[in-house]
Amino acid sequence: MFMSDNNSGVHPDIIEAIINVNNGHDYSYGNDITTKKAIEKIRELLGVEADIYFVTTGTAANVIGLSGLLKPYEAVVCANTAHINVDECGALEKFSGSKILQISTENGKISKEEVIGFLHPLGDEHQSQPRIISISQTTETGTLYSIKEIKDLANFAHKNNMLLHVDGARIANAVVALNTTFKEMITDTGVDLLSFGGTKNGMMIGEAIVSLNKDLSKGFKFYRKQGMQLLSKMRFVSAQFVAYLSNELWKENASNANNMGKYFADRLLEIPGVTLKSKPETNMLFVYMKKDLINSLQKEFDFYLIDEETNLIRLVTSFDTSKDDIDNFIEFIKNIREIE
Ligand SMILES: Cc1ncc(COP(=O)(O)O)c(C=O)c1O
What we know:
This protein is an alpha/beta fold. 41% of the residues lie in helices and 16% in strands. The longest helix is centred in the last third of the chain and has 20 residues, at 249-268.
């Protein structure tokens, strides 16, 4: 199945961590020792005393974090493809009352030049006030922002009394792909708010809201409770983070997903008539192939048809994708070709 890294299972080390923490009683609502450990692990990774709140979904991380920084008359500027814009059922608008201002993009990325166009209403009480630039790293279209691009956006935001949010549902894939560290990508660039993903990279359930500016996040614990994400048995999420961030499990998992993305791309290019929209940068591939081939493949494999007009499909590899999984897909295509 190549639909999404959401479709994969859970890494055995994570399951083991959940079992190990299922030992007697411990303090509830995040006052347990495991949650403290998990918070320290993320702080170590980022090299900063960030404010950290665990939640269960990426939508919750985005919506609660952003809402905590926004007044209802303020707006978020993001790509039209952003998960907060198209895949969260208007949760941010409902929860915060804020407007989303979208920039049309082909590759899922936005630049400061494009954000400038949204700044003219600043000070005008008739219009929503742009307050946060939100980017996704990895983007929803599988592309990446360079460290310099993130830094430029953060500087630009701060110069204009704005903040920079990173939706990091796939942040580990990005850190591995750019051969960098979380600190260099997030802390040193000046990001204010990070939605730190875990679920897509081998965890069962777990995301973290990370505020790098403690002055701004004083109210986050209240937003999390109002947002129904303060788990009484928090340690079962925290234990996953401890395991995920120990022995570089995050890196091992993301490396496999990314490497399998590259392997998949190479193997697909063996097939005449199959082309890639762009070279895969992480674990997401966007591939053009003939309609009849897509139809045949869909009988055997699960993946998304992104654009029916151009016959563009999306294939996503995961922490547990193997070369055999990919070879089966390729052999299936080659066999069809032989029969034809
Ligand atoms: C870029 C991005 N952000 C956030 C999410 C989190 O979504 P969910 O609320 O389903 O965990 C996803 C999930 O697919 C995503 O792709």
